[in-house]
Amino acid sequence: MKRQQRKRKCLNCGAWFEPDVRNVRHQRYCSEAACRQASKAASQRRWLAKPENRDYFRGAEQVARVQCWRAGHPGYGRRAGAATAAALQDDCPAQAIEKQEESACLAGDALQDVLSAQPAVLIGLIAHLTDSPLQEDIVRSTRRLLQLGQDILNGRGEYADQARHLP
To answer: pLDDT (tens digit, 9 = 90+) per residue, 71-118?
Structure first.
């Protein structure tokens, strides 16, 4: 015959809840996140209130106990893969560098054509100048450089006299 469960009032939020059948005799908090947190805090307060637990984490013998345990469990507290943590940005696939005979014809092209033909060089240059390989920093610097170039070419601001001398 199935036992009928009684509802209880949560000690934290006051809501009525049905305790878990395995913990019916001592569950006093509902399963809400804030109530679980309050239950944990109350449990810790009760544990620390006992005289035998007050100095559990203090003293030379406790330090020796922890050091002994750590020696027996190397790497326990370290996260998996912490030494080989993922990069903050996606990996760029390596581009094969081909030796081309056409390099002589590229030397005569305008600077804009060379830079548009070599986006990796431009990105590398900006990363070198900003001393940061992060995409966010490169994008921010590129936008700033683009605005500066447009100001120079359009004759705006303090660069107006330089724009007059462009061919």
So the answer is: 999 888 877 665 555 667 777 777 777 765 655 555 556 666 655 656
Check: CB of residue 71 under 8 Å from CB of residue 64: no
Q: Indicate whether 68 and 107 sit together in one domain.
A: no
| Distance separating alpha carbons of residues 68 and 66, to the nearest angstrom | 5
Taking the CB of residue 166, how many other CB atoms lie within 10 A of it? 8
Tell me which residues of the chain have a pLDDT lower than 70: 1-5, 80-87, 99-118, 157-167
- Residues 6 or more apart whose CB falls under 8 angstroms from that of 114 comprise 106
Please measure the distance between the N-terminal and C-terminal CA atoms of the chain and give it in whole angstroms.
97
Query: 29: exposed, middle or buried (C-beta count within 10 Å: 0-12, 13-18, 19+)?
Result: buried
Give a yes or no: residue 57 inside a domain. Answer: yes
Q: Which two tokens stand for residue 111?
A: 């600077």
How many alpha carbons lie under 13 Å from residue 11 in its C-beta half-sphere?
Answer: 13
116 within domain boundaries: yes
Which residue range forms the structural domain that includes residue 28? 8-72
The count of C-alpha atoms lying within 13 angstroms of the C-alpha of 164, restricted to the half-sphere facing its C-beta, is 5
Cα angle at 16 between 11 and 21, to 5 degrees? Answer: 90
